Amino acid sequence: MVDEVLSQNEIDALLSALSTGEMDAEELKQEEENKKVRVYDFKRALRFSKDQIRSIGRIYENYARLLTTYLSGQLRTYVHIAVASVDQLPYEEFIRSIPKMTILNVFSMEPLDGKVIMEVNPNIAYTMLDRMLGGQGTDKAKVDSLTEIETIIMTQLFEKTSNIMKEAWSSLVEIDPNLEEFENNPQFLQMVSPNETVVVVSFNTTIGDVSGMINICIPHMVLEPIIPKLSVHYQMQTETKARDPEAYAKISENLKQSTLELKAVLGETSINIQQFLKLDTGDFITLNRSIEEPIELKLNDVSKFNVQIGKVGHHVSVQILEEIEGGEEHDG
């Protein structure tokens, strides 16, 4: 609970009310005692902290972006999916909140226990089906009478979202989702007890001109083994862990194979166009560097060393004399 800070005017008004008898100090004390009592509904147990709920929200924001890209390609029309809310509630309440006839995809989440439900609003589901069959995409929902062929088409469409879920969760845990069931009646899905706490992620979904909701229901038993990983504290610890020696060695080895350009610059000068046009064979161009001075050796056009010209065998070479201080700060 965050303490409220009163302004000076509020403090003065409070003191004035106490001194004039308009407000009783005992009443204030009693109100403060009453505030310490908080109503708790055991049927609606809150088993996830706000921090953990936010972490789940971030995972599914990434999922929404990936799903938008996937469905845009499959349906060949405008698709927009965005997280609308992330809530925790009893499983029974989730089942009551969705239509009596809808599209329900049940995914296993190996190696995690339990299953996750992806509920697709009938309007959205039929629009997807209509687009898959070559139609314009209407909102005439008829999920209660899907033919066998239509059921197969819808199942194949949602089977491919398993990889999207896997990628979205990869930053936290490695899972292998698999579409286990395709159902259109929520009453047949009794995966957990009615009072089991579930996290429901709701997405605002637009396909063409049709809008609706997609909901993902995640039971507590699925998330229980990875709850510590959902906290910001755990994620910060993970980010600050010592680097992986094997990965570090591999990156270092790859960097050693990178190509760099070394350039020894004898000197520079500036001339105008008129002088350039008059240049002829045998002309001399005076540079800005004396013959006794060292020349610059540049690494990818950044001055790094002072060197002197020499010869090794039949090759022209340079010998490094000293490193140029702050050479990384100014380009050639």
UniProtKB/TrEMBL annotation:
Signal sequence bounds: none
Recorded topology in the membrane: Peripheral membrane protein
UniProt main location, coarse: other
An annotated Gene Ontology molecular function: cytoskeletal motor activity
Pfam family, one: FliMN_C
InterPro entries: CheC-like_sf, Flag_FliM, FliN-like_C, SpoA-like_sf
Keywords: Bacterial flagellum, Cell membrane, Cell projection, Chemotaxis, Cilium, Flagellar rotation, Flagellum, Membrane
Family: Belongs to the FliM family.
Protein name, UniProt field: Flagellar motor switch protein FliM
